[in-house]
UniProtKB/TrEMBL annotation:
Gene3D superfamilies: alpha/beta hydrolase. PANTHER family: ESTERASE-RELATED. Pfam families: Abhydrolase_1. One of its GO terms (molecular function) is 3-oxoadipate enol-lactonase activity. GO terms for biological process: beta-ketoadipate pathway. The lineage of its organism: Bacteria, Bacillati, Actinomycetota, Actinomycetes, Pseudonocardiales. It comes from the Bacteria. SUPFAM superfamilies: alpha/beta-Hydrolases. Belongs to the AB hydrolase superfamily. This is 3-oxoadipate enol-lactonase. Residues 14-238 form the AB hydrolase-1 domain.
Length: 252
């Protein structure tokens, strides 16, 4: 399905696609947008059942979410783009760069994983959400998105992300959890040709730094940066992540 999207920036600039974490929408990238727009035509999109994109019956696999992006790129006539994603959005980026290398120019992968040590937590979360809805898990899930220090200083940001997660379609969210339970992108990483930067949140409990170390070690030539943040590093440490994005994507 073709996802809801926003395409902004100079029409003749290179295109940068921004992919979101599970339970978030295009607003995830608000802090980066002003610095990116002078350099890029920025394409933001929502995963199925998130933001403006309708839900589809599940279960999903990351392949399905990546196919949605390919359908969108084809519809917009975009043959080749750079891609930056956080968490689930970065999993989509890895899939695209590994399976359709001709479509991906440069890649940034933030706070993400190529495979989880156990599928069970994702099966459990999917079952909970199918039974009691996204709002029932939002408070607990969001505590892992920010460090306690950041959450104390910015309770309004935490509340906004909790409210956003609560609005995600229950079946779509659960089906994305099914995708995470089945996730294993390790075999595609060595095939990625796009110059890649991987970003770790030093305090990320959701996708701990050793997950990004594995990714950086598996993608030829990839460079790993660590920032002082938890899972949503581009929200918690916006200037650091924006700098990494611009250094890798805009400096030619
Ligand atoms: O929501 C979480 O718990 C962490 C996460 C995994 C994939 C993603 O996008 O976020």
């Amino acid at each position: 399905m073709r996802p809801h999207h926003e395409l902004t920036g100079p029409p003749d600039a290179p295109v940068l696609v921004l992919g979101n974490a599970l339970g978030t929408t295009t607003t995830l990238w608000d802090a980066q947008l002003p610095a990116l727009l002078p350099h890029f035509r920025v394409l933001r999109y929502d995963h199925r059942g998130h933001g403006g994109t309708p839900s589809l019956p599940g279960p999903y696999r990351v392949d399905d979410l990546a196919d949605d992006v390919l359908e969108l790129l084809d519809a917009l006539g975009l043959a080749r783009v750079s891609y930056a994603g956080v968490s689930l959005g970065a999993m989509v980026g890895m899939w695209l760069a590994g399976h359709a290398p001709e479509r991906v120019d440069r890649l940034v992968l933030c706070c993400t994983s190529a495979a989880y040590p156990s599928a069970q937590p994702w099966h459990d979360r999917a079952a909970t959400v199918r039974a009691t809805g996204t709002a029932s898990i939002a408070p607990t899930v969001v505590t892992r998105w920010f460090t306690p220090t950041y959450a104390t200083r910015h309770p309004e940001v935490v509340r906004a992300y909790e409210a956003g997660l609560s609005t995600v379609d229950d079946e779509a969210y659960a089906s994305c959890c099914d995708a995470l339970a089945a996730l294993d992108l390790r075999s595609v990483l060595p095939a990625i040709e796009a110059p890649t930067v991987v970003v770790s949140g030093e305090h990320d409990l959701a996708t701990p730094p050793d997950h990004q170390r594995l990714i950086a070690d598996s993608i030829p030539g990839a460079v790993l940066h660590t920032v002082e943040a938890a899972h949503l590093a581009n929200v918690e440490a916006p200037d650091a992540v924006t700098g990494i994005l611009l250094d890798h994507l805009a400096a030619r």
